[in-house]
Amino acid sequence: MSASGGTKAIVAALSANLAIAVAKFTAAAFSGSSSMLAEGVHSMADSGNQALLLLGGRRAKRAANEEHPFGYGRERYIYAFLVAIVLFSIGGVFALYEGVEKIRHPHELEHWYWPVGVLLFAIIAEGFSFRTAIVESNAVRGDQSWVQFIRTAKAPELPVIVLEDLGALLGLVLALGGVLMSLATGDGVWDGVGTLCIGVLLVVIAVVLAIETKSLLLGEAAGPDAVKRIRAAIVDGDTVTRVIHMRTLHLGPDELLVAAKIAVQRGDDAGEVADAINGAEARIREAVPIARVIYLEPDIYREPAPAAG
After folding, report:
1. Of 99, 95, 83, which is closest to residue 47 (Cα–Cα)?
2. Residue 84 carries which DSSP code?
3. Beta-carbon count within 10 A of 146 CB
4. DSSP states along 244-281
5. Which CATH architecture has domain 224-299?
6. How far apart are CA 165 and CA 106, in angstroms?
7. 2: pLDDT confidence band, cut at 50, 70 and 90?
8. In a 3-state reduction of DSSP, which class is residue 210?
9. Where the protein is mainly located, per its record (predicted)?
10. H-type alpha helices, 186-240
């Protein structure tokens, strides 16, 4: 997995979530808090998310073969989509169910110090994980806003981890609020309300991630800046005079396909055209290193005929 895959952020989040999940389930067992139980399932789901992201990154490294001539780069998109659809949704639906049940059948919390202590510990641990994800993301997002970064990132891991950690922190605050309100009022309904809010939060994050990763699975073009650099690299002003039309497609986060019809001089022979294409391919790879698969078709450019009338 490339640096843009955010391996460090994934490992940090996985380590934090495994420890937090054990603590949450222990607190839920001692206190009977449904929000703690929902948060425990949330942390287990998050741990599964990170394991899937690591697995997707590993499988994406497989070399191309006859059956998959463009390689396996999109495996990273598939596993990110599974994270969004399956695990986040399972965590969200479970939390919604637990919240409704606790509101319908509330009971007083026991050993309240268990959930409060674990939630405070979890907030600190998730804060460190979230900080790692922010640092990793800042290294690649440039001057983009966070919304732009999540919507345009070609490597799915960092947006997933950022949203996951943000959701985890908000979920912990909601769970703590539910527990504290139950303690203050003596009414266990508040614990169920907190659980219900956690479920809504997880489902919203699942929908956002599903929309973004679906776009990557369908196939996205290179960003505007990369397209501009590719067009400038193709034209040498001598043999290649212009780009007639061009298409780009991400085969994976770190692999780009470029296909273009280019205009060459009418009098050039086959050798000159072949040399021009080879030179253009070299310039493209220098300008945009992830452009690994390049197809350039030479043609004679003809000015479009003026419209009648």
Report:
1. 83
2. I
3. 14
4. EEEEEEEEETTEEEEEEEEEE-TT--HHHHHHHHHHHH
5. 2-Layer Sandwich (3.30)
6. 29
7. very low
8. helix
9. membrane
10. 189-218, 224-234
pLDDT at 165: 84
At position 82, the amino acid (one-letter code) is L
Using CA atoms, how far apart are residues 206 and 92, in angstroms rounded to an integer? 8
Most confident of 118-127, 154-163, 276-285: 276-285
Question: What gap in Å lies between CA 199 and CA 279, rounded to an integer?
Answer: 55
- Report the run of H or E that residue 134 belongs to, with start and end: helix 113-141
Query: What whole-number distance in Å separates Cα of residue 236 and Cα of residue 139?
Result: 33
In the chain, which ranges are E strands? 240-252, 255-264, 291-299
Task: Pick from 12-16, 162-166, 287-291 the range whose average pLDDT is largest.
Answer: 287-291
Q: Which CATH architecture has domain 3-218?
A: Up-down Bundle (1.20)
pLDDT of 125 strictly over 50? yes
> Domain spans of the chain?
3-218, 224-299
Backbone angles phi, psi at 74, to 5 degrees: -75, -5
Q: How confident is the model at residue 3 (pLDDT cuts 50, 70, 90)?
A: very low
pTM: 0.75
Contacts of residue 91, defined as CB under 8 A and 6 or more positions apart, other chains included, come to 38, 41, 42, 44, 45, 46, 202
